Amino acid sequence: MISKHHLFLLALALLHQTQAAVLPLQKLLIQEIDQQNALGRQDLASQGFRLIQTSPTVATWMTEEEILGLKQKEVGYMDITSQDLEAVNSLALPKRFAPPSKVGHKDIVVPLFEKISIPGMQAFLDHFTSFRTRYYQSASGSQSADWLFEKIQAIQPKNPQKVSVKVTRFLHEWGQFSIIARVESRNNASQNENDIPIVIVGSHQDSANGANPYFGRAPGADDDGSGTVTTLEAYRVLLESGFVPGRPVEFHWYSAEEAGLLGSQKVAAEYKRDGKQVAGMYQVDMTGYVPKGKTPQVAIITDFTDPDLSDFARKLVSADHASWTKAGYSSIFTFEGEFKDHSPFIHTVEDTVENIDFGHVVHFVRVVLGFVVEMSLV
Fold first, then answer.
1. CA-to-CA distance for 176 and 170, rounded, in angstroms?
2. Given phi > 0 = left and psi -120 to 50 = alpha, else beta, which region is 275?
3. Percent of the chain with pLDDT over 90
4. What is the pTM (predicted TM-score) of this model?
5. Which long-range contacts (CB under 8 A, 24 or more apart) does 148-151 make?
6. Cα separations (Å) of 29 from 26, 82, 342?
7. 54: part of which helix (H) or strand (E)?
């Protein structure tokens, strides 16, 4: 999705168009349902309706056909039918952590750049896009998650005596699970896990064909195979270089982003429910497309993000992020360029590796490496 990516504020301009497409009969139905209790909402959901949020303050019950219309118009939305984040709204806001005032670890970060492998990223993406689709409710979407999990698990730290690595499946009620890889210093082993703020880098592993999500071919090379491999490559470089983080670092690969941020909502809600602290979350989504004749750029999205963390990201540079922002955590989101220049191939059979600029992907891997090092060594 792109006006995509979890950017509810960017969707405001299209909101009136979206609302106008809702059937009058359904509007009457919504007014009645809004006055009913949770049982009434569950009954509506059982009939196939989904509660869709298109801005921070507007949510509407919609059919699958109407939701598909949003995707085709590139209207960003969040499916809040399960009320995951709403259920933790009454909990105390997470503690906010100020980002570093300056970039202070170039001596550690810059040497890491030489370890980035374009051939390795291309080989990964060649296979990752070979699944017919990575849609979260498809059999191949589950298979792609299994394959990704094995690839992540195969990467081992250079110094296991100093660094602990734990890769876990975050299971959902649908087949495709989210994946969380936690990297931390063994010096933290004696401390309570919730006492130390986490640095998070996330991307979404699923893909979708905009015309036929369930059965259409969706290679998803840019959306979001490029973000997935960017996150994975940064993870590999850090582990194989022997980097020891101060704060724990987690790398997340979310399921079901294309269906309204379903996976990241559940992860963020659980973290808030468990009282986990997050120093900052960096969402990596679509990093591989450069229009012909355009200069490659790393765009920093400022809507629905933490302004101080975004300012820090600009110093480094010189999207599921919305689930974390909604849960009260600080997050940032970078993008492959201005939205008007985003890949025209997303959500189609043409979103293939041939349309990926791996030199551009490298720029984002570098930013992720800088973010992790600087945010964890404070």
1. 9
2. left
3. 67
4. 0.86
5. 148/179, 148/205, 148/228, 148/253, 149/177, 149/179, 151/124, 151/232
6. 5, 19, 37
7. strand 50-55
Which residues are bridge partners to 182 per DSSP?
166, 250
Sites in the chain below the pLDDT cut of 70: 1-42, 301-304, 317-322, 324
Which stretches does DSSP call E strand in 285-348?
299-301, 331-335
Over residues 306-354, the pLDDT tens digits come to 788 878 877 776 545 567 678 777 888 788 877 778 899 999 999 999 9
**49 Cβ contact partners less than 8 Å away, ≥ 6 residues apart:** 61, 62, 63
* DSSP state string for 240-281: HHT---SS-EEEEEES-STTTSHHHHHHHHHHHHTT--EEEE
The answer to whether the peptide bond before residue 308 is cis (omega within 30 degrees of 0) is: no
Cα–Cα–Cα angle for 146, 148, 153, rounded to 5 degrees: 95
| φ/ψ bin of 183: left (φ > 0), alpha (ψ from -120 to 50), beta (otherwise) | beta
Which among 109, 94, 233, 249 is positioned nearest to 181, based on CA atoms? Answer: 249
Nearest CA to 230 out of 251, 246, 209 is that of 251
User: Would you tell me how many other CB atoms lie within 10 Å of the CB of residue 47?
Assistant: 10
DSSP letter (8 states) at residue 300: E
Structure tokens at 316: 């480094």
In the DSSP assignment, the letter for residue 133 is: B
8 A C-beta contact, residue 270 and residue 190: no
The angle, 0 to 180 degrees and rounded to 10, between the axes of the packed helices 307-317 and 358-376 is: 120
Q: For residues 67 and 49, what is the distance between their CA atoms, to the nearest angstrom?
A: 10
Q: Which residues contact 5 (CB under 8 A, 6 or more apart)?
A: 76, 283, 285, 286, 301, 319, 320, 333, 335
pLDDT in tens, 333-343: 788 877 778 89
How far, in whole angstroms, is CA 61 from its chain's centroid?
A: 24
